[in-house]
Amino acid sequence: MKFICTYCSEYVYDEEKGDPATGLGPGTLLAQIPDRWRCPVCGMPRTYLRQIRDEVFSLKWSAYAESPEGPMDVTYYRNIARKMLTGFCGVYPVCDGQPGRICTGQKFGQPIGLGGAGQGKTFEANYNALQQHRLKMRVIKAHHEPEMSVSIFGKMLTAPVMGASLSGVKASLNDAIPEDAFYRGLLKGAESFGSVGMVGNTPTSPEDLGVTIVGENGGWGIPVFKPQSQERLIRLFRQAEERDVVAIGVDLEGAGSTFWVTPEKRVYRKSEKDLSELVDCTSKPVIFKGIMSVEDAARVVDSGAAACYVSNHGGRVLDCGQGVAEVLPAVAHEISGKIPILADGAVRTGFDVLKILALGADIALIGRPLARMSIAGGAEAVRMYLSYVQDDLRRGMILTGCDTLDEITRDILVSSS
Ligand SMILES: Cc1cc2nc3c(=O)[nH]c(=O)nc-3n(C[C@H](O)[C@H](O)[C@H](O)COP(=O)(O)O)c2cc1C
After folding, report:
1. Global pTM value
2. Hey, what CATH class is 2-63 in?
3. Ligand 1 in contact with 313 (CB < 6 A)?
4. Is residue 189 within 8 Å of 199, Cβ to Cβ?
5. What is the chain's percent helix, strand, coil content, to nearest 5?
6. What is the pLDDT of residues 331-366, one digit of tens each?
7. Where are the domains of the chain?
């Protein structure tokens, strides 16, 4: 039987011939295609393949594609992710890093999967710190549709939400799909939502894989490099510039990566001089990630960077650290209005986005939830998750009396810390 990919409507899979280029031998039945397989044209999973009949082969897929069983919504993809990440992530109703989750607890030198470093206290702190703040409901005001679009790095985004930089399918995500397919899902999903995605970099893949995939995506994406030697970074920055990326990032907190430890692949702490050198070596906007103190935030501004990214890597590098929502207000007090502030850490819903913006961020970024979506359903699942977040952000803005992003201030929060 023959099947067409209903996402790209280009790829056709013929069970009789198989598809050796994607690892499927002749005679491989649809049901035997592994979960990690991806459409070689658009990167979507097997679930998008729908049977076609020879006589309609040349018609556009929409004319004959069978409707999927049940809605292919966020829940659907979460269920697939649960299967694909068995042993790594329970895909719990709330992704909070609390003790007892399968991702948390001391790993004794083993890879941490989707959890946090050490005992996972920083991951937990990200969640708990955000929960210290509650939203104040205000419903008596003339109604306006909330204006959510925002401009950053000269680009317009549908909403102040972006995909955080992610990588490392082999070590952290059960080797569930190829690393390049993972990046494509993140980038294309964010793009089709109307935002920009970031991709990280991992030592088990070529160091320029992320920037190559961003290049493939017409430059629509942000590669975030580990803080390798200046020489390597400058080389990677040049590649990024050639591919006309939206911006270039360095995750300074990556100096604590447990993976980049071989003599050829090493990471370093960076000095103020190093930061300025990196900013000066490119005409692209540069983002420094991993800022968790007022002092470092001021240095990022001094370096000439285009944005300061408040993050502790989802608690994956330093245990017993502060939660992002604890640090963010002081950072915002120091640098707000000078350069945009990006922030991530346990942002799961549109209401969390509202809170993190109220605490001083200009853009909220989402990590683990999008990793699960890209693994389970590629770009479409990532897009759906971001849309789900946007819907709740809209509702949250209406119910806290905010018509514009500028109106999202500390006044909408009731804080217990
Ligand atoms: C599986 C996984 C891989 C990650 N890989 C990278 C990376 O390569 N580069 C990077 O800057 N951050 C990386 N991060 C950190 C995220 O960019 C982000 O800071 C963090 O996930 C935000 O917290 P959240 O997951 O609670 O939303 C990774 C996070 C996870 C969970």
Report:
1. 0.87
2. mainly beta
3. yes
4. no
5. 40, 15, 45
6. 999 999 999 999 999 999 999 999 999 999 999 999
7. 2-63, 150-415
